[in-house]
Amino acid sequence: MTTGFFDAVPPATFEGPDSTNPMAFRHYNPDEVVMGKRMADHLRFAVAYWHSFAWEGGDPFGGQTFIRPWHPQDDMGRAKMKADVAFEMFARLGVPYFCWHDADIRPEGATFAESLDRLNQITDYFGPKMEETGVGCLWGTANMFSHRRWMSGASTNPDPDVFAYAAATVKGCMDATLKLGGQNYVLWGGREGYETLLNTDMGQELDHMGRFLNMVVEYKHKIGFKGQILVEPKPQEPSKHQYDFDAATCIGFLRKYGLEDEVKLNLEQGHAILAGHSFEHEIAVAATDGMLGSIDMNRNDYQSGWDTDQFPNNVPEVALVYYHILKAGGLGQGGTNFDAKLRRQSLDAEDLIAAHVGAMDICARGLKAAAAMIADGGLDEALNTRYAAWDTPEAQAMLGSDLASISDRVIAEGIEPQPHSGRQEILENYVSRFV
């Protein structure tokens, strides 16, 4: 029995590149083998419960535009209806995973105990649906940024009672993620930052945040959770400055607090853009340090200065992202979560399916282009050529030398370096051949 919400929308199937059906895949064929692995196993798609089902269509300047049968989201009956609809959509799309915050899937209770009880009720409700559809949990997390209690942070809050409430919240969400067989657990510090340094002890807040994350890792091992612990960088919005600014900042934080072997990164394209980076850059930074965990695939409007969370539509950008992911060995236990939402004017159930179908196709095209570039080897060849001089015994010996000895050699040999072309335009043209 269905809810009727998606009755007018047929299941999405692969029809090939010549299809003109907006509800069919043109490029995403889950069983197609790419670099020795099924496309579905490379991409590991997930639907974000919050944007797809909990978000009501508001933006910074206007309120609700979506009128869904499960609105208002204030009792368990409607929470279960929302779950019914969600799993219908997962099945229609054929996605293997979904992701959630606690506040997405259960209404807030009058007390913490009531909220936790509701979380346990709804995750129990998920169990049979997951078994019936075969859809798993890519990751769970806690919303510690929306409610007013979090206005000054969660683990970084100056009030120790808020720290305690955050600890209890994360414990409950980790327990629920374990129960659902989650592959990862994510922490995003939306309010872990400051509005002004006039009232902020940055050193104390960072130490508390580091201790909190160590507690998370300790609890992971205590309960036998085999998934990855991930943190998600973002530079600003809602806070003026967030401590998890970008991939490099998070990696430095993890090393400072002894967590570099326990925690990896969940990277989002929209957050990369807000930090002044490309998504390709953030993936490369994490991969270089062995800290690439999972990705949230979306995009921002380049004419807007805030996080618009639009579905991806740029194949060249996506291809370079998957190029670095494939070169790093793939996503492992991570996946491609669509942390993306409809436009406020896209009101229909059909829009929700079409947005995901298009995004999955964009990722599939990007993945195939990335695999083709790796097979061709052109970028590897260009890199090897550019850095070939470092392979000589003389160059390697210099790295173990000292400034004075190197200076003597430069003078004795009369070294006068001659610049070489970086060939950027040629390489950009090369990438365009594949996308």
UniProtKB/TrEMBL annotation:
Mg(2+) 1 binds at residues 232, 268, 296, 339. Its cofactor is Mg(2+). It is an enzyme of class 5 (isomerase). Gene3D superfamilies: Divalent-metal-dependent TIM barrel enzymes (3.20.20.150). PROSITE patterns: XYLOSE_ISOMERASE. It is found in: Cytoplasm. HAMAP family: Xylose_isom_A (MF_00455). This is Xylose isomerase.
